[in-house]
């Protein structure tokens, strides 16, 4: 496997702290109020208490402090240059490098993680495929969204995307790759009227669907091959 199991575990904790324990409101406030960067840092530390509990005390402090420092740097950069998809991707890459650094410099074998290695990888795949991929798409390709696109129920489109990738990732884990085509076909059928009436929506729909599929494929390959 490409990724060290401890690294996968740390990645899962990072995803929990940086995406699932951070609301959209907090993410917005972090851009204008430095105090929210500190609050987020404290919340980010919560899932990493598992690292502390397993006795990796130095790793815990390095992971949390480095995250706060990187977020502080991002705060300054965004106040100066503005927020964009490139900054988001670069920020996440730096966080990943910090995880790699900790695993390399403070190597530790966590018995629980090693015992349930495949389950940990599966859980991290599901975590990564849902909200983080959604945020990445909006940051990098959100500008493609047609201006006349009906909003529908508030947040429904986002939830549909979450469920789509959750289902795709689950099918990969179960080895049911043949069912993936049915998922995409069902999604296209549900949007058939909008696809036929709006070329812009058709293109946006296709980009979003392919992005979801490619993201799950890449994540599965990274975690399991």
Automatic annotation (TrEMBL):
Keyword Glycosyltransferase: no
UniProt keywords, alphabetically: Membrane, Transmembrane, Transmembrane helix
Presence of keyword Ribosomal protein: no
Transmembrane segments: 89-110, 122-144, 165-184, 204-224
Pfam families: DUF3307
Top-level division of the source organism's lineage: Bacteria
Protein name in UniProt: DUF3307 domain-containing protein
């Amino acid at each position: 496997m490409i990724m060290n199991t401890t690294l996968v575990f740390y990645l899962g904790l990072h995803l929990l702290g940086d995406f699932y324990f951070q609301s959209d409101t907090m993410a917005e406030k972090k851009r204008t109020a430095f105090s929210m960067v500190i609050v987020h840092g404290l919340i980010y530390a919560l899932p990493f208490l598992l690292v502390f509990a397993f006795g990796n005390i130095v790793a815990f402090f390095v992971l949390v402090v480095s995250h706060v420092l990187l977020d502080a740097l991002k705060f300054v950069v965004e106040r100066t240059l503005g927020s964009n998809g490139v900054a988001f991707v670069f920020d996440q890459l730096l966080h990943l490098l910090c995880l790699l650094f900790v695993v390399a410099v403070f190597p530790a074998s966590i018995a629980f993680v090693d015992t349930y290695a495949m389950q940990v990888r599966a859980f991290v795949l599901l975590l990564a495929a849902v909200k983080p991929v959604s945020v990445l798409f909006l940051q990098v390709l959100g500008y493609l969204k047609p201006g006349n696109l009906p909003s529908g129920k508030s947040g429904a489109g986002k939830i549909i995307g979450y469920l789509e990738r959750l289902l795709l990732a689950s099918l990969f884990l179960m080895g049911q790759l043949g069912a993936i085509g049915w998922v995409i076909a069902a999604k296209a059928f549900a949007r058939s009227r909008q696809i036929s009436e709006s070329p812009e929506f058709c293109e946006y729909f296709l980009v979003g669907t392919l992005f979801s599929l490619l993201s799950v494929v890449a994540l599965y390959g990274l975690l399991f091959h």
